[in-house]
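User: I'm curious whether this sequence folds into something compact or stays loose and floppy. Could you predict its structure so I can see for myself?
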Amino acid sequence: MSLSQSTADLLPIGSNTRADVVEERLREFLRNKSFRPGDALPKEIELAQALGVSRNVLREALSRLRMLGMIETKKKRGMVISQPDILGAFERVLNPLIIDDNTLQDIFELRLVLEMGLAELLYIRKTDRDLDELEAIARSENPKNKTFRIQTEIAFHGKLYEMSGNETLKRFQIMLLPVFDYVITLEK
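Assistant: Here's the prediction. I'll summarize afterward.
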């Protein structure tokens, strides 16, 4: 048996830092122990000892969880589980100036898929006033003016998200506005 055959089942060891490993272990710990929003985490020193890492490594991992919106620090309680902010991390990095064209295309496709899934919900929740507003937006479109066309598209899709009554979807649309603004500047 050759060396390449005998090692074929081995997977390479990742280049994860200790903080990467601690972050993942903490997330597993929170899942396995069924922590809920408002639940207090063990003290830093206890976590560091249990994980066998320095407090600096632990703090870096906790900082990442904080940035993801998973934990927060409360006076007199220490670290507690936060109410999940599903879009928080996405919102922090959604900067059209640092996103490549392929990712921008992916984001627009994500929006399209979400809106196709909204069709039935919108049909159920629509009002005559909503339909009138959508028609007015569509009539106002000027096909000769690209900038105005994009602004009309933003208004139309914004109205769809508003009609959904879903706060997460409305927030997603608001998060996309800087991306649309960026596209408008490219069109000029």
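Summary: Strands lie at 71-74, 78-81. The first helix runs from residue 3 to 6.
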